[in-house]
């Protein structure tokens, strides 16, 4: 294939239909520009919104679950951790699945799985059945989340990737924040079971109507050993950390942790030494990708730790109902949505580093205000803390995620997206488990020092968790000084899309 170098120095007029913008695909081939990219992505937006909404909507229902099923907080937290564990186990395999199965078929199957899980959860008579339905929903979310980012990198032109990631970030960040508000309203009006019947049908319809398959299927060899190692490694690590809250460092917990770490080390070694890896971990060797990947994972972990603690503290520490607690989180959710969109566009203009500094400063201030909340604190203090955090987190999250994806060459785009999402979900699951442990530790310490007020005990435990979240943001700030930002220059080439040879010239990332 030859390319006229004189053409390569000129940017085509984007309104000319003979030109299509190409963005990275597996193997380095570019893909086509779509006239209405957001409409193409609509079904995936709904699907991911549904999955991420479900990720935190159960936080506000945990007190009700503990009462209805007579389980401890350590057991109830599996409604959150089990969900993220399923996501973390499935995510590393999605990049491989997209090379074998049409993206639209995969997304439709995932949404049917989510709907089935929702039905199981709605009628669940016991906690294990409820958890099984929840894990099915996690598997679905684990599929649609990286598929959305992989599709974005193909559907949108390079100069709009930051803004497109801003919309995706709005879906991902707004849903977990608004989840407790919606859940609180549903619990007050019906019951916690109503949480599981949201948006699945809408997502299925939009996907069927609008989504296309912009991802080329290369059908690489199937490495069964890597698939098994991925499931055992990620599953063992997250399960081990999560069980510490209930079982301490028992032989079972230690075994799970050791197996998780050892198998993950084997998995990483294998991916770096086989011809067709399940996940191309060489992306982590790119410093411009690795640093922001760590930063976005830490900021996401902080968000989930806060969103796990806050709804419970409002109920168990400040004595508010689930409905009121959910409504109090609404202003911060709205602010978060606005700032997420702003952050995507600001990244296109100013890069990541300054946005990270602003976001880290805001999040530290908000986290400190969370720490200051006590049993007799006013609602205004909570609102201030929540809104400030919801301003800060998007500036970190969106800028670092966009910087990480932009740093990779086209052939690593799909794997980079999967690595990012896997890291976030695994970090999030572990941070939720750690927050649960610290909550229990703080309550125990309060009682051991003579405290008798259960509400103050819960507030004390929550403060331990808030300190953990602040420590994660300090790590983000420290990493920002190592942040390297790269820009890719477009060039012209030809493209073969969905098996149809196109002679049009395209701008390749």
TrEMBL record:
Residues 1-26 are annotated as: Disordered. It is found in: Cell membrane. Pfam families: MFS_1 (PF07690). The chain crosses the membrane at residues 42-63, 75-98, 105-125, 131-152, 164-188, 194-212, 224-245, 251-269, 281-310, 322-343, 355-373, 379-396, 426-444, 464-483. PROSITE patterns: MFS. Residues 1-14 have a biased composition (Basic and acidic residues). Residues 40-487 form the Major facilitator superfamily (MFS) profile domain. It is a multi-pass membrane protein. InterPro entries: MFS, MFS_dom, MFS_trans_sf. One of its GO terms (molecular function) is transmembrane transporter activity. Its main location: membrane. Keywords: Membrane, Transmembrane, Transmembrane helix. Signal peptide: none annotated. One of its GO terms (cellular component) is plasma membrane. PANTHER family: LINCOMYCIN RESISTANCE PROTEIN LMRB (PTHR42718:SF43), MAJOR FACILITATOR SUPERFAMILY MULTIDRUG TRANSPORTER MFSC (PTHR42718). This is Drug:proton antiporter.
């Amino acid at each position: 294939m030859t390319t006229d170098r004189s053409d390569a120095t000129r940017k085509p007029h984007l309104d000319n239909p003979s030109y299509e913008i190409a963005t990275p695909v597996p193997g380095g081939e570019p893909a086509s520009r779509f006239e209405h990219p957001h409409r193409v992505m609509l079904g995936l937006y709904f699907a991911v919104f549904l999955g991420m909404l479900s990720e935190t909507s159960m936080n506000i229902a945990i007190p009700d679950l503990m009462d209805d099923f007579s389980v401890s907080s350590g057991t109830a937290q599996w409604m959150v951790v089990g969900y993220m564990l399923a996501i973390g186990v499935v995510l590393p395999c999605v990049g491989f699945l997209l090379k074998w199965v049409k993206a639209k078929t995969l997304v439709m199957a995932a949404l049917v799985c989510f709907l089935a899980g929702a039905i199981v959860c709605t009628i669940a008579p016991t906690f294990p059945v409820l958890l099984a339905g929840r894990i099915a929903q996690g598997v679905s979310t684990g599929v649609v989340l990286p598929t959305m980012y992989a599709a974005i990198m193909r559907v949108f032109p390079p100069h709009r990737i930051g803004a497109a990631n801003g919309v995706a970030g709005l879906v991902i960040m707004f849903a977990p924040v608004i989840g407790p508000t919606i859940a609180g309203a549903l619990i007050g009006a019906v019951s916690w079971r109503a949480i599981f019947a949201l948006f699945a049908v809408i997502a299925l319809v939009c996907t069927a109507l609008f989504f296309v398959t912009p991802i080329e299927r290369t059908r690489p060899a199937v490495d069964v050993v890597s698939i098994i190692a991925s499931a055992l490694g990620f599953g063992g690590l997250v399960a081990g950390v999560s069980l510490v809250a209930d079982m301490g460092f028992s032989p079972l917990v230690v075994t799970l942790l050791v197996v998780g770490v050892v198998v993950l080390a084997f998995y990483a070694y294998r991916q770096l030494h086989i011809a067709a890896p399940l996940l191309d971990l060489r992306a982590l060797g790119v410093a411009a990708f690795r640093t922001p990947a760590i930063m976005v994972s830490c900021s996401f972990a902080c968000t989930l730790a806060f969103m796990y603690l806050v709804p419970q503290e409002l109920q168990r520490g400040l004595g508010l109902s689930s409905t009121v607690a959910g409504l109090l989180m609404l202003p911060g959710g709205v602010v978060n949505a606005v700032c997420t969109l702003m952050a995507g566009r600001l990244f296109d203009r100013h890069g990541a580093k300054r946005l990270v500094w602003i976001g880290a400063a805001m999040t530290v201030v908000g986290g400190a205000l969370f720490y200051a909340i006590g049993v007799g604190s006013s609602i205004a203090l909570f609102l201030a803390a929540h809104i400030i955090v919801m301003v800060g987190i998007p500036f970190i999250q969106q800028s670092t995620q966009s910087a990480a994806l932009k740093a990779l060459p086209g052939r690593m785009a799909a794997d980079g997206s999967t690595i990012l999402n896997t890291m976030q979900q695994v970090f999030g699951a572990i941070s939720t488990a750690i927050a649960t442990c610290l909550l229990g530790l703080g309550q125990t310490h309060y009682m051991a020092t003579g405290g008798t007020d259960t509400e103050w005990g819960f507030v004390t435990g929550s403060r331990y968790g808030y300190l953990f979240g602040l420590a994660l943001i300090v790590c983000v700030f420290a990493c920002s000084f190592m942040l390297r930002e790269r820009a890719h220059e477009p060039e012209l080439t030809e493209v073969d899309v969905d098996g149809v040879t196109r002679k049009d010239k395209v701008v390749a990332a």
